[in-house]
Design goal:
The radius of gyration is 28 Å and the shape is globular. It is built from 18 helices and 29 strands. The strands form eight sheets. A six-stranded mixed beta sheet has the order 4-7-2-1-11-13. A five-stranded mixed beta sheet has the order 15-16-17-19-18, covered by helices on one side. A four-stranded antiparallel beta sheet has the order 5-6-3-10, with no helix packed on it. By secondary structure, it is an alpha+beta fold. Strand 15 and strand 16 form a beta hairpin. The structure holds zinc ion. Zinc ion binds next to helix 6.
Length: 658
Amino acid sequence: MHRPHFVSSSGSTSFQIWPKRHWTLSFATAFWITFMSAYSTPTQAAELAASSATEPIQYTLSFPRPASHYVEVEAVYPTAGAPQITLMMAIWTPGSYLVREYARNVEDVAARAVGKEETPLKFEKVRKNRWRIETGGAAAVKVTYRVYARELSVQGNWVDAGFTLLNGAPTFLTLADEKAARPHHVKLMLPTHWAKSFCGLPNAPGNDPHHYVAPSYDDLVDCPIYAGNPTVHEFQVDNKPHYLVNEGEAGVWDGPRSAQDTQAIVQAQRDFWGFLPYDKYVFFNLLTETGGGLEHKNSTVLMASRWATRKRESYLNWLYLVSHEYFHTWNVKRLRPVELGPFDYENEVHTRSLWIAEGLTSYYDRLFVRRAGLCTQAEVLAGDPPSAAGGDDKTKNDIERLQETHGRLVQPLELASHDAWIKFYRRDENTPNTSISYYTKGAVVGWLLDAKIRETTKNAKSLDDVMRLAYQRYSGEKGFTPAEFRATAAEVAGVDLAAFFTRALDTTDELDYNESLAWYGLKFADPKGNKSKPADAKDDKPEKPEKGYLGIETKNEAGRLVVSTVKRQTPGYDAGFNVGDEILAFNNFRVRPDALGKQMELYRPGDQVSVLIARRDQLQTLDVTLGTEPKNQHKLEVNPEATAEQKQNLEAWLGKAP
Ligand SMILES: [Zn+2]
């Protein structure tokens, strides 16, 4: 066990590391002048000036036993003389639309008056995430609590012997019901064997590298904190420092290459928007064998496998992830749906525009890896490679993913966005049957919209111009409504897009790909996988006989072959298969748990099979007529008969092919 590295003003080891004299108004005022000139834009500075009289909340975080996964929090709250104060912990993190009940990880809450004698104060838990404290007239109240931090995810908290990642929402109790922005100061008392901390927040004046200042609670929530022993790669774009903070390189991850490629992506996106809207940017790249990413105004948390630089597919996925989260610096963190800010941290916030925030960001993430020169035209057309974090086992483009999801016929795109909290983030075995991903369909709609604008303006304009015009009009505090975004796109296109948007966003009608395919000279590949070849080419491979198809997915559960998904409108669905059924035999022959795929090769479409199953331990048979597996009909390829004009259009979109 390592002792935490306490800094003490009085010479004793104590948690009270900020002598009260530091927090006089004069210090605060002087500090704010320095701080505002260092950090803020003129508008922010004006806003901050209005709140500069607001006394800060001061947090001290320590890690006495990091291996136990706890962070100890000591927080000092000014009371402004009120007889009671109420503290609140957020229930969700912006960017991740699920109620996560962070207060469940809080324990050992205690409150004391700040003064000579730290008198214990009465307090009461008044809501699942709120505490009301009787101040006894004290000018400031000190609250201590511990937070269990063992969720290794981009929006969660993690503490172990090696490092910590702390997000604002699951860590900090703040004063509830505040109207004005109040500064929140965070001082980290790191274990002696953790050398560095990083955070998007500016450092407090002075020499403590682990002391950060958030101008408001929103900024605190938006700036995750990492501490440990990372490998840090720094680069400059527009003379602004960018840090790629790699946790867990372990001699495996290619740090220099990843930093160089990250810089190329930053440069490509900076060129697109024309400016960088921050003073510094931190990529927290946690190589933890998990996956995910979460965007912030001047940082992002990424999680990936440390082996990802070793394989083209996984590295490409990582580049797309970097590009995706970084694009959010503009799209969603500053150009946002009107509903996504200021945030209500205690309730769900619904918006119909996640197809723009996430879908269009997905559309652009691959484009920017391409524009940065880090992938080929063919790779963009092929789509996302399989991810180490799970999901598909094949590279697929978004059209393929959308068209194989029955939910596209059930859930319109804007509704998918609105219901993200209860559908997309709460997936179950029926999800593919009833819903779609606003990432996937949003990206497809982005592709169609982009092609449409290029076509109607004869390549003079594109979706790029829509994004930039929308940013000009709606970024910052303003936000856009769904109607405003549609109108902006129509303005750039110079044509009425009402029918296009209605079909794509409000209905479940199938999308029409023909126009876009024709514009770029693309086509859907032959589903049998045969490349387009000259008519006289010999095909000497014998044709594989068609195998039977059930339309269910299974998993091997401790040696039992168990149904995990029943896709709608398939033979398995019609025959009455249920999720949870254990498959035992086909026509009285045993099916081993790892051999269903092989079994299906022994049957043909149209074959009648009697399947023995166990459902809640009771044996029964289901009679099924096997069908034909739907062919993948939406792989994109360049049409060999494309005209010179179509080739030019493709080049305008994806650059020159090698
Ligand atoms: Zn995103």
